[in-house]
């Protein structure tokens, strides 16, 4: 087996023909691995060093071809190559780790909120009849998302309205809901991206040197990103999919106050009363 010599001596042997290029590359690989602290790789584990050197190996081959003895020793030449390339490798690995961590964290949050809607058993409840057709109509429009076309065709004659006209009212509200769903979906996508951005800034700030200008810059960007994320979440919390009283009033062509008072009267009428002791 070849003896592991300092890099200057190894290069002399290579030039003298005692070592071929592949042997020199292997000797450099092993020398850096065995003396990683000498190359300022203090906190690196052996497996990390091996991964890094495997990534560096093609550059070692090119560095041997480009080296010219013009005052700088081969030791210093390889030392500079390892020093600067290790910083590049660490930066790339940090970026990859940030992206992977952020993606999985966001994916975990997304999966945690995916719950299938439970099946509600059909219940036969005796409701008090509402004699006012307008009340029934407004209640139908208020719960349009849960009303089937079959039910519409059966209830339309009872409130003395044409079935097609009632369906048109329902469809108008469904179109508004579709537009709102697209807005909410788009906002959720932007929130996910902003959440990912905040995680990325956090990881970069932790990786930056303490007290450096880069850390301060990333900290400022993180604060702005968090403020924007909170603002987007507040906007999402107030967005509604159900039909508003204003939308129902527009569909019926009546004042909004009429819809408000009608729904309030129904609410009071059917509000459960406390049982007397």
Summarize this structure briefly.
This protein is mostly helical and 277 residues long. The protein contains 10 helices and no strands.
Could you explain how this protein is built, in words?
This protein has 277 residues and is mostly helical. The chain has two domains: 7-94; 133-269. The chain is built from ten helices and no strands. The protein is rod-shaped and about 105 Å long.
Please describe the structure with a list of short key phrases separated by commas or semicolons.
70% helix; single chain; rod-shaped; 277 residues; 10 helices; mainly alpha; 2 domains
- Poorly predicted spans: 125-130
Count of alpha and pi helical runs: 10
How far is it from the N-terminal to the C-terminal residue, by CA? 98 Å
Number of domains: 2
Number of strands: 0
Judging from the principal axes of the Cα atoms, what is the shape? rod-shaped
Largest sheet: none
Strand content: under 5%
Structural class: mainly alpha
The rounded Rg comes to: 36 Å
Please state the oligomeric state of the protein chains shown. single chain
Q: What's the pLDDT, averaged over the residues? A: 78
- Would you list the SSEs in sequence order as H and E? HHHHHHHHHH
Share in helix: over 70%
